[in-house]
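Continued from yesterday's entry.
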Amino acid sequence: MNLMLFFVSWFIRWFDKCFNFITFANAYCGSNIEHSVLDAMILVTLNEYVMMNERYENGDVVRDLARPPRKLSSPKRLLWNFTDMEDSIAAAFQSFKEISSDIDLQILHCRYGKGFMKKCRLSPDGYMQMALQLAYCRLHKETPKTYEPATLRLYAMGRTETIHPGSAWSVEWTKCMDDPLMSLDEKKTLLKKAIWHQTQFRLEATAGKGCDRHLLGLLCASRELGMDLPKIFRDDAWTKTFKLSTSQTPNRIYEVVGLNALNYPMCNGGFGPSCHDGYGISYIIYGDTMVNISIASWHSCKETDSKRFAKEIDRAMEDMKTLYLTN
């Protein structure tokens, strides 16, 4: 079903709107969202509201008599004129078919959640970001340029700003985790500093003090003015691709409806990688005991492997837990 929502059944979906609600025969449902016109959290909030407020009795929906359903006009069949479009449609069909078969999607259910992270006095989001850094460095032997969004909903017309979770502290910490000469205290100290950096960056970006959207505005202005590309936008720090494109989906549903009301392992988000040799990582923290992670890459890229990356994330989280359980 995750693949069906992601890509596989794209040829029976309508894409004239920015989202589709998709319901399966077993009553599970999900959404396919086109991200450019709105932030994903708007649809996430809508879905969460429905799940928190739906009520059933004897197998039927409990209706609010004070708010009767609206009377809608009957649907009308649309007639289409495809004259001279047949070749373009066939080419688009084949292209999308190839893309959908190329997605390498894995779902990881972590063995613990934010309860342990908070007992260690560590930010859960920062903890997860460092787990991703460690997993990637172990698998690919390099530090990835990493994207994480901060919301700018505090401001009118605000969308997102970029958090850069990587830092000198995270680089040193990922190196020291597999160094037998480094003590447990040294490893803990570097991890705390790496998470502190990510947390401060996130808070500043949320307050409108990030730099990426400002720089993007300058880049767009330079193009509109017909300028030569300014040197800053030719720098490696700008031109390198985001090998890790990550996002956490905040939620309230676990606290409201409890542990047994939903099949939480089936509640995931997900999106594709932002470059051919990268990963798209979506993670959702449910209460104190559960984290679900969606890992997407391309089969056609020989350097990436979602299944191996999932195993490295699981290993990284277990090593981080052991770091704090070992005296």
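--- second protein ---
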Amino acid sequence: MKLNFCEKKKNVVIACIVMTLCYVALGPAETVQNIALAESSDIALEAGYYSEIAKYVGATLVSLVYHSFYKWAGIKVTALATALLITGLFWTMIWIVNQYVIYLGAFVTGVGSGGMWIIWPMVIINNSDDGQLQWNMGVWFSCVSLGLIIGGLCNYFYFDNVTKISETNRIVIYSVCAAVTLLMALVSFFGVSEVRKCKDIQAADEEPMNKETTRKRVVTAKEWFRKMCRLPAFWLLLLPLIYWGFMWGLAIKMLPTALASISHQRDLTPLCTVSLGAAFLVGSVLWTYSTRILGNTISTIIASCLAITAVILCVLVLPKDAASEILDVETIETYITPHAAYGVAIGACIGLSDSGISIIYYSVAGKVYGAEGASLGYSVNNLGFSIFYILSMFAPSLFDLHSYCYLMIGAVLLMCFTLTVLLRNYMSIHEAPHEVLDDEDL
């Protein structure tokens, strides 16, 4: 008797559920942190940016030790540990002691979230059959955005008619985030498993085991890195991370903070999060289908144009200094009259563009890294992203928001050129490039 719902499919479903729960909590918690600190405590708004730096220092460090820990602890313990660590920031925002304790909590959360962005793409790659990788990756990213929508909607309705975030508001928000994350930890531990079965379990049990497969040598981390260092594509994959780190710095921290300077209503920030998540969800579905029709190259160009549109809107609508302080709404100066609809439009453009770029980039990276190198490859990927995201958190102290946006346009163009020209051999949806090294080249 055939089992229609095999272990591989189950793991893909678990990956989707976990990332949905993760961003139900993590997305809204990050976007309101700066405003919550400024309005419900005596800690300066800048502490929110510095806590993000601490968070991604943690994410950077976990990239260096993740592979070894995963090999020692196994997938269940690794999934449980990464989920539990994400709660670090939530506890310190519930019981605020001082900014240094918040930095410590953010560092712990960074270790957890950094591990999440390694383990779950790895699960998707290792559990995707031939020709299904890009499809599964698209579904997985859809679940990330679904989490942003659910969490954003909860905050939106909770902040209805709120013009200043109180201490009670802050405690309720982060308590709910902690509870959702603990649920995610249980789903991670009891749900995910190492792959032991294939699509047709009965057929696999009946066929004699291939001796060559059982004798296949496991590639060590050192051998994998030696192999990757000989591939130009491995190094080229680092260039789009400049765009990614700086774009998410804008979307997660600077944009939500700046919106508080164009409206007295605090529900505008979660509304923008909902817009971002909804656009990411719709985009994930549209790009999953459209890439099969238009191809990855044309899709990347369209997504890049949407990203540039979002950045230009930021320049037109948001005040120059709105990323570093909450300004008086009555005295701000902008190129066009601010309106809540513009904030929603910026979130929508970022979501639509980044959903397509994310699907394409992670699929291209999966072809370069290979299934056996997925954990190592995404560790490198997470390390690069974390470094550029950390740099983006220094921007409000060094540049005004408009100068940052001009730099972002250059980062988008570099990302587009890298994927469509320099990595064009890896942009095919179904076929892996012929130049990828195999085990015989080690």
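Residues 122 and 374 are 5 Å apart (CA to CA). The chain is about 75% helix and 0% strand. Will compare against the first tomorrow.
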